[in-house]
Amino acid sequence: MMLALVVAATALAPVERLYLSYGHRANSFSAAFDPDLERHVTDQGFVAFARHACTRTSLAFFDPVCLETNMETVLDSFMERERQRGRVAFWKVSTATARYLCARHGFAAAPYGTEHALDLRGDMLRGPKRRNLRRDVNNARKAGARVEVVEAADASLTTCERRWLAARPQSREIRRATRRCRAAPEPYCTKVRAVDDFGETLGWAAFDHCYRDGDLVGAGFSTVRWDPEAPKGIPALLAVDGVALVADGRATFRLELGEAPLAPLPTHLAEGFPPLPFVSAVTRLVYDRGRLLYNARGISAWKRKWRAEESALWICCEKDPPFLETAAALALIYDP
């Protein structure tokens, strides 16, 4: 049996093998499989990134997928190659990664937002702190909604997604910075849907698998879509009942709720990094006044309902104001 596992692991592509060994973060699936991203791959890990030719900028997305002790080696390898091509910037990295980039490579940093996660222990809805979440879930259940695993491609998921997008401030998905999720089954991802008493799809969600040493240890709640006319509470129901289906009775399992983009950092998560005042001003402006562009406040409010563990995410650039890096990021994100 052990020999068979070794042979199977060896046959995997390098990125897939590294993902199954070290892909325990919320964005590890996107780092490994997003079709719009390239990968800088070493024996120890990989960095997901995209290049913008006009500004000669390489924009890395997320933390490196690697063993924590190899993070510095993987980042150094990426920096050595991409600095030969032009500018380098980082989008949505953890405090540990930002700290190393600032100390070793002379970067400055601005908060991108917060990331939320919790361990599944007992009843997730118990206690006064989650009463708003509990109310949402109970409302959906009282309306007759139930959650099931999506086993095959279903046109109703696409229909539901179109209705959801039509009601959003932006009527199309953002590339690279957010998960581009197909309304159909994918490897290393569990799709679930909420249906009513007649079997009609009210909403659906994707849980990207998180791995350590080949073991499924958690799931990233990366995508959720719902019919605007569906009963209130469908997103919460999909998250609560969906992750229970993915966990499948495991004694320990972690729900990665993902980020609240542009949300102000709590005081205890602040760091003394060299600042990026221009980036901070732009992100704060979008958070405060940019609802027609991106509903950051709404996402942040929904994540706070969970009372989950919070950690900081950062944007890292080599100097301020990073005009060319900002232009590159906008071009890559809003590339049609």
TrEMBL record:
The keyword Signal applies. InterPro entries: LPG_synthase_C, PG_lysyltransferase. It is found in: Cell membrane. Keywords: Cell membrane, Membrane, Signal, Transmembrane, Transmembrane helix. It holds the Pfam family LPG_synthase_C. One of its GO terms (molecular function) is aminoacyltransferase activity. GO terms for biological process: phospholipid homeostasis. Residues 36-316 form the Phosphatidylglycerol lysyltransferase C-terminal domain. GO terms for cellular component: plasma membrane. The keyword Glycosyltransferase does not apply. Residues 1-17 form the signal peptide. It is a multi-pass membrane protein. This is Phosphatidylglycerol lysyltransferase C-terminal domain-containing protein. It comes from Pelagomonas calceolata.
